[in-house]
Every structure is written in C-alpha cells, then in structure tokens.
Prior knowledge:
- This protein has helices at 12-22, 44-57, 71-79, 87-101, 177-197, 212-226, 257-271, 275-278, 284-310, 313-317, 334-345, 352-358; strands spanning 27-28, 61-65, 103-110, 116-121, 127-131, 137-144, 147-152, 157-160, 202-206, 242-247, 321-325, 372-373, 391-392.
- The chain is of the alpha+beta class and 393 residues long.
- Strands 1-5-6-7 form a 4-stranded antiparallel sheet, with no helix packed on it. Strands 4-3-8 form a 3-stranded antiparallel sheet.
Amino acid sequence: MGIFNRKEVRKKEQMEQGIRDYFKVLNAYNPCFTTFEGSVYEMELTRSAIHAIATHSSKLIATVKGSASTKEFKSMLKYKPNALMDTSKYLYRIATALNVSNTAFIVPLYDKYGQINGFYPLCTEKCEIRKDESGRAYLRYEIQDGKYAAIELERAGRMIQMQDKSEILGASNRVMLPTMQMLSTNNQSMMEGAKNSASLRFMARIATVLKPEQIKEERKRFVEENLSVENSNGVLLFDQKYEDVKQISSTPYAVPEGQMSQIRENVFDYFGVNQNILQNKFTSSEWEAFYEGKIEPFAVQLSLVHTGMAFTDKQVVFGNEIIWTGDRLHHMSSAEKVTLISTLFDRGFITHNEGREILNLSPVEGGDKFYIRKEYTEEVGTNEGVDSNNSDT
Length: 393
C-alpha cells in the first residue's frame, strides 16, 4: 500500500471516477492557502526564528495512554509516523508549516484493514477546504504530479495559531509585511553598498571642444591608462586636456542600527523568540520561558489533534490519549541538575537511573529502585522523632 492510501469510505463507483471527477459536484468553500509575497520563510531572520522553533519542537516525545492502541501504533509514533519521515522530521515540518502559514494540516494514513498506521503533514499551500452539496466539508490536497486526494475535514488534524475571523483557519502573516519590506530594503542597500565600494568613479571636464565620438574615445583611453588593473601603483596622471578631475563617492542608504534593532525585535516579538534562542546560547531561565511560551502550547495542541485523529470520543472517555512532552530539564546547568537530583532522590521522587538520565548517563543494573530518608517516611502510631541519619529502601 502507498503512503497516501486511505480508508475506503466512499462507494466504489465514485472512487472509479477519480478524485477530480468527484469534486466536480462540489462548490468552492475557501480558496487555497497562500502566504504574502515571498513568504516569511524567504527572509533570513524570520527563517532563523522559525527554524529555532521547529528544531526544539522536533524533540518532543509521544506517550500513548490507554488500551485502544497497539504496540505497533506506539512504535510508529515514537520512531516513524510515515514512510518518508522519522518523528523528528515529522514534528519539524508541522512546526514549520504552522509558523509559516499559521495553519498546518495532518492526515491519518490507513492500512488495508482500515486501521491507522501513520500520519502525514501536508503542504498547507497545496490544500483547500470544500463542501459538497450536502454541506459536508472536505480537505482536498495535492499529493504528487498533479494528483489529488481528499478526506473529511473532521477526520483530518488541524494545527492553528493567530486565529481571528475564521473558526477553521489561522490568520495570514500579512501584519509582518512592513517589517519584511524593511528587511528586504536593508539587505538590498548593503549589497548595493558593496558593489559601489568596489568601483572607482570619476568626473572630469575636457578643456577643449571635441566631437561626441572623440569624447567617447578619450574616455576609453583615460580609463584604460589610469583605472584598469594594469595601473598597479595607484597614481592617477592626466595632462592639461582635463580640468577638475574629481572622484565621485556615493554613500548608499542603510537602515540605522537603532531601526535595525527594532526590526529584529519586531520579528522576535512576533515569533516568540530572542537572539539567544536563535544562537543557542540561552540560559536555563531563558529556555524555561521559551518552552512555556512557545514549545509547550505547540505540544498541547499537538496532543489534542493527534488524540482526536487516533481515537473515537468513546475511547477518549475511557482514558485513551496521545501526549507530546519535552525534556524541560535538559537545558539546566550542571549545578542546577545536581541540586535537583540531590533534592528529589532521597525523597523518593526519582530513581538512580532517572537521576543518571538527567545527567545524560546510561542506566545501570538495579538502578530503578526508589530510596527515601527515614525522616520523610510516614509515622504510624507514634509522635516520637526519627533519626535523620538513617535511611531505608
């Protein structure tokens, strides 16, 4: 079965007509999703911001709870949601699409028995939502070589941010257009400045009257003798034929540093990042703020979307769910990790191996036991104190 094969939910005669013929009876519901000129992904600074968010989002780990899922399903989510992507690439693409278009679509993949055996993130710009004559909404998307597929909208996953007028889609990034234009202008001015600084330009007045063709020939001779690479000594010589030989210096426009800083802050504010996050030199407190403000909301929505695709309402009621979480302790300093382990270990909150995992060490045999100091144990039938130097397992 191909990666885009899906559950057979329509009648055989409709499927034989092909998806193009089937959609001839549908009326347009919403235009294709597009971003403004060039997209926010086409500028260096905004792409760096999106890349940082997507990179950290790609480290999330899925936990499947409940009895409705199989070992194969759990392994699929952990390692390879589809034939083309491992879990890291899968999450990276979802996070990128969400921040570029403020809407990201995910479709479940089915085996020949109609069971979900994978998930695939779509290219948002190749998707559109349409309704059939009964008013039921479908997500129609291009897969490859101009071929299309469709799925009922309620069975597809939708990640949304910047939601305003539409209850289905996120708003566009057009509010970033002025900032993007200023970034583009600044980049162009820097390139033009480099070109201008690499060339010498002169203005000279010829003291005698010459015909146009003579002026042209004289200009060519002057340049070849004085401004070509053969003039290695850097000395400019000319006779009385010329008057007022002057070098023309041009100063290209560049965005002032204060204004450029404001442009960067506009991008950082919009995407919820800062310079240290982009350059991977953040502190543990900066990481904590970034995680809670950007990664954790993404993980929460990701969990709800995948749970909705994988389980029925009844299965959810009985405790079946998919939870995406991140390692919030990984970016703590070594001193902070040691303090945390010392505080939690002898209180019975973590095991030896869990403490070693925090320090990026491999587990050891017998390291899954919990230990607790006696003064933290519950006292039964006595009010007398307990020796705090003793410990118990």
